[in-house]
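Hi everyone,

Forwarding the result from last night's run.
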Amino acid sequence: MEDLESLKAEVLAAIAAAQDLKAWDDARVAALGKKGRVTELMKGMGALPVEQKIEMGKKLNVLKSEIEAALENRRNELAEKELNEKLARETIDVTLPVRDEVQGRIHPVSKIYEEVVAIFGEMGFDVAEGPDIEDQFHNFNALNMPANHPARQMQDTFYIPNRNSDDFDDSYVVRTHTSPVQIRTMESRRPPIRIIAPGRTYRSDYDATHTPMFHQVEGLVIDKNITMAHLKGCLYDFVKAFFELDEIPVRYRPSYFPFTEPSAEMDIGCLKTKTELKIGAGTDWLEILGCGMVHPNVLRAGGIDPDEYQGFAFGVGIDRLAMLKYGIPDLRTFFESDVRWLKHYGFTPLDFSSMTGGLSNNGGSAR
């Protein structure tokens, strides 16, 4: 019989010397494989006397257990070493940019918001805000919209049930315009009032030029002796500054809105071809916004005496302005979270809008 202590020392040394899993497996097979040295010793026990067989069996079992423990420990060490080497080879320094350029982009809607605020801010307008969830009084009733008005139909408006009332008239709405901000401003302030109300609005519609959620900015001016001439001058200055043109043809067409009287649609001059829309001088017209003199009933609903004060209001879609100014053909792409689209149409983070530094041209867009 082979000396067990010498065998143990040789096997454990071979296991410790294994530098990879292949060498480890070779050491395992040499000791415990079908023809391994320990296996052969266990097979030869049959020729021994009974007393020696029992003694040798105990020693071989102890030896086998020690070898198996050494194999297990060495395998864990080699596996950990192999993993660490792999991780070291595949290390990525996430603190460094992949490309030598600014990755973030400002969304066109945010950019237009900044531009509109910059323009009207120079005219002395304040920015007013209100809740997205409105009661029907502020969203409809106070704006001279009767209960049977088409805009209040369920196919156009998102209604929210009032858990404290079964009466449909008590239900809430997700605001269909930012006009409720005008009513809340009149309730909380006394004239003179000069505000714009930008924000999200919601209607049940979805196609290339309509989405269930979109952005509007509405304006309100109330004071004594306000006339339609003030409205036309304000909006003319706005479209010139917004489209960054020295002159731009405009016209006003009679229209109807329940909250203004008289009401009008404002058109701007343009040139339309099959492949291009150019704002400015041209033979065509493009509707841009709705406006008018505030209806006396709306003033009364806001707690203002229409015999003493009058005013004008207007509203325009921020998304529509972005489509016109930056040549974006489909409104739905504004809300699809496509990074490629945002990289193409977006603006660099430091591209601020101001009347002194410029609107869309001072920092350069990523288009």
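The CA atoms of residues 118 and 233 lie 17 Å apart.

Cheers,
N.
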